[in-house]
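Narrative of activities, Objective 1.

The group set out to show that a structural description can be obtained from nothing but a protein's sequence at a throughput compatible with the screening campaign. Below is one input-output pair from the validation batch, recorded exactly as produced.
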Amino acid sequence: MRYCIIHFGMHKTGSTSIQQTLANSLGSSTFQYITLDNSHPRFSNHSHDLSIAFESNPFKTKAARIMGLSHDEVLARRKIIRNKIIQNFNKASVDSFIFSAEDLCHWKEKDLLSFKKFLEDQNCRFLCVGYVRSPKSFMESVFQEQLKAGILNKADLPLKTITIYPHYQWRFEKFGKVFGWDNVRFWLFNSENFHNGCVVQDFCSRLKIPLYKNNIIRRNQSLSKEAISLLYAYCLYGNNYDLSKLTMKEKHKIAYKLYNLRGDKFYFSSSLIKPILSHHQKDIIWMEEKLGFSLKEDLVIHDNTAIKGEKELLKFSPKATYWLAEQLGIKYVKSWHDSMDIEQVANWMHLLRVKLLNH
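Output recorded for this entry:
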């Protein structure tokens, strides 16, 4: 019988690092990381392909939209991916396999059942695993990821924090219902408790997956609060500068440049977070009972520098705007001043975007 590890994230828990490390350098004679795309054999996140292969309405999936697939192309892709999984099983010299797809958390229960039945038909048993991140740190991380992706709207910041709350029971209960709770493992996402302080090593250690430490790939760094302020001004207040229309590669170019702007870590204020956690207390308790650990965080420890609302996000430090001027050249350094307004910052960010994408 085959053994399938189904890694479902959650989002913002080091999944990209885990996926890319296992896809590119899994030095194991006992485990195989599933490969689903012949044209991109090292494409490591299975979310898009599994969505097309097993969701009940694959034509409406994010994957089909992003890939620009027609109705017939979706049907063909669905068949190709299912066959590709079977080929992975049949050609492997091992009997243990790893799937990794954070978007499984967003599937409907009936779609997970379809995936489970497919695996059972291939004589597979399974273990579903994932890390669980505390709500405040999760929301802080998701906020900046959505900002980098250009998908934030001109909305009141407190309202935005409400929409990115993790909704644990909605996200995870389906795995227990479909696969059985005996086949589901939740792990607390806390770097202080990770094996050697590394989520990739921790993941492999828990599952007894052999790993060469020198091959670990780390992805998705955090932006500083100063960098987030510049990007926020650009995304929400730049005239007709729609980041959402850029390709993923173009968005990454901008983000990688902003990683170089060092500064304070980005935190939400307790005044933003406390009402949200209070509203979702039952959901948090449900998750803590399944996890076996508390998700409690110190909400006030960073309040002196934390973001209370849009006003703080649009307060640009002279260090940040001078850094921006330096990226554009001597002309902008000479015209820089320490009290630049939102429109000027947004315009300069657009010039940086144009410069980066033209090189």
